[in-house]
Amino acid sequence: MRARATCPLDCPDACSLLLTLEEGRLVRVEGDPAHPITRGFACKKTYRYPERAQKRLLYPLRRVGRKGEGRFVQVSWEEALDEIAQRLMEVLDREGGEAVLPYHYAGTMGLVENQHPLAFFRAIGASELLETICATAGGAAWEMTYGARVGPDPEEIPGNARYILLWGINSLATHSHLTPFLKEARHRGAKVVHIDPYANATSRFADEHIRLRPGTDAALAYALAHVLFREGLVDRAYLQEAALGLEEFEEAARAWPPKRASALTGVPEEVILRLARELGEAKRVFLRVGYGMTRHPGGGNSLRAVVLLPALLGSWRYPGCGALLSTSGAFPLNKRFLGGRHLLEGHPPKGYFRPNPKARAINMNQLGTALTELSPPIRALFVFNSNPLVVAPNTARVKEGLSREDLFTVVLEQVMTETARYADFVLPATLFYEHPDLYTSYGHYYLSWNEPLSPPEGEARPNTWVFRELARRLGLEEPTLYWTAEEVAQSLLDTDHPYLQGITLERLKREGFVRLNLPRPFLPFAQGPVRFSPPPEVIPTHPEPGYPLILLTPPAKSFLNTTYGPVEALKEAEGGEPRLLVHPLDAEPRGLTEGVYAVIRSRWGQVVRRVHLTEAPIPGTVVLEGTWWEGDAPDGRGINHLTSEKLTDLGGGSTFHATAVEVEPIRFAQ
Ligand SMILES: Nc1nc2c(c(=O)[nH]1)N[C@H]1C(S)=C(S)[C@@H](COP(=O)(O)OP(=O)(O)OC[C@H]3O[C@@H](n4cnc5c(=O)[nH]c(N)nc54)[C@H](O)[C@@H]3O)O[C@H]1N2
Ligand SMILES: Nc1nc2c(c(=O)[nH]1)N[C@H]1C(S)=C(S)[C@@H](COP(=O)(O)OP(=O)(O)OC[C@H]3O[C@@H](n4cnc5c(=O)[nH]c(N)nc54)[C@H](O)[C@@H]3O)O[C@H]1N2
Ligand code: SF4
Ligand SMILES: [Mo]
């Protein structure tokens, strides 16, 4: 059988895939040629999904060993669910809903399996989890500046954009379906410039790579604005109509002549001048920003400063031009009942366990602290769609929390992750072709629906099934808890918004994916408004005493966060083990040579990695690509042993690229 399904992974491309199944098992993945963004190819990662599927969990498990040891016995769903419900009721009776915490993120992007499980937690008044690990700093910055998270339609870039800036995004690795549009635009005369602290696949593709010091983007943006104002290269007519608070911004830009910005950013003065003039001349600029630059203490302000540049140039007037962070704001779904959000609006209490609109909120970047210091404590933790032991900052803290004997932990998973090893119960989850779901995208404007292509293998079950079963056992009456995926989707589509006109579940089921009814050309901010005030602040990322280097930990091309961690071929493609990229100028004084093992230390912990000497990073910066599983590191420690729970200036986001470290070769005892 060969049939269509949307890729569920946390990737802007939300590809349409053609899956070949034999006796319910996935044997082949192809890109769907009919999808205008997928264009017939998937990615090197997802072609390997069948190998990942072979490592899946098939039965519920109960822990018999110590936490983290990974010893489990198979149990029936009845046993598992009855015991979980009972343990949960004890916690709720004794300590109330806030002692329960769901920890979840984006293992699947399907709205039903990603968000609807939260209805259960809201119905019992659990602590709320703030979903901040990835996109909230950028999101908050964007919303302050433009409002809705939309931008140019990638399909309209070719033939329109004359200048393409890829800023703080390694799009060739992390957003590969943008590449054909970039190539076509370049073929029609556009120049492509990449702005990033280290040279990677995208820099090699670009016509020019500008390296800057991490966390200094706002200064570079101001210097570009400075030159644009000074040389009369801004689009005054557009700004007159569209800009709010421009004077204050212009004033702030005056303080950043290229010379000053050059000293902070490491970008030569003449490069800043030339870039500003080229942009001013091109006007039709497509700026693609990633979340990379936002993972710094000043990341929100950096992103604001950068995404204002196309507004200065009037780029928004032209199709395929302007700034793009995410397209997610174009999907005007009715989310009122998704994940029981209405329960936070002060729904009249019903039954014994109750919603709590005032439940405390826990920032997911601070899981370690939440599990070890919070008072009153978390007593029951439910993890789904996430692998926090590896992906959350300050792993030592997270492990300490997960090791607590008085913490009852349930992990819903597809594979035995390092997080799952700490669970009291591990529950096997379905794969994306086994459950129905609705998908949006953050890189394009197509909505899609997955119909299950096969019954679940073994005893795997969707997340929503598990929480329905628990709700029944707790006697919860809230009707949205028992909605089917179709009912959730119908409710999401229940809106009069013109972008969704004529898009019904029936149509989605028939066609698989449907383009939103956006005007063509799509010119979201052609008349603004663009908020220039308050002017963004320049909050650079600094090394610390004793830790003179900045460590970046960006995504690897062959991985998708930790999801492909168990696939050998992909690990091989990434060099077999995680490697630290070190510039020769930083290596030399430390005695680091090619291939040696080195200790990387931060204030939070230390790990051992093999060193690779390369001129890719700007001196002063070291890079470790990919969130590898702990077991694949030479010392069995994940990279987040080094990172901190510090939050961004806006949106309470993560600061994964701002870690101050020192690196030393390992000296073996004689
Ligand atoms: N292959 C692959 N694709 C993925 C993922 C993956 O793990 N692997 N992850 C998915 C997810 S969850 C997300 S959020 C997105 C990732 O989205 P992004 O975070 O946008 O990731 P990248 O595209 O790798 O861009 C990160 C880039 O930012 C750079 N950077 C770091 N600090 C700074 C800075 O201060 N200034 C500037 N200008 N650049 C900086 C890094 O060097 C890196 O090249 O990708 C998704 N796609
Ligand atoms: N140092 C460092 N840390 C980082 C990052 C970084 O760049 N550097 N990136 C950060 C970013 S951008 C993000 S988005 C986060 C990602 O963090 P997570 O969202 O936790 O991503 P994954 O590591 O891929 O883990 C997803 C898990 O969900 C499981 N899963 C998939 N589908 C389902 C399902 O239907 N049901 C259930 N129950 N489980 C499912 C998968 O098996 C997988 O183990 O990591 C962050 N951590
Ligand atoms: S991971 Fe991204 S590029 Fe790869 S198939 Fe999925 S959506 Fe497409
Ligand atoms: Mo992310």
TrEMBL record:
Signal peptide: none
UniProt xrefs under SMART domains: Molybdop_Fe4S4
PROSITE patterns: 4FE4S_MOW_BIS_MGD
InterPro entries assigned to the protein according to its UniProt record, in alphabetical order: Asp_de-COase-like_dom_sf, MoPterin_dinucl-bd_dom, Mopterin_OxRdtase, Mopterin_OxRdtase_4Fe-4S_dom, Prok_Mopterin_Oxidored, YoaE_C
UniProt-listed CDD domains: MopB_3, MopB_CT_3
Domain 4Fe-4S Mo/W bis-MGD-type: 1-57
Top-level division of the source organism's lineage: Bacteria
Keywords: Iron, Iron-sulfur, Metal-binding
Annotated SUPFAM superfamilies: ADC-like, Formate dehydrogenase/DMSO reductase, domains 1-3
GO molecular function, one term: molybdopterin cofactor binding
Family indicated by similarity: Belongs to the prokaryotic molybdopterin-containing oxidoreductase family.
Name of the molecule in the record: Molybdopterin oxidoreductase
Taxonomic placement: Bacteria, Thermotogati, Deinococcota, Deinococci, Thermales
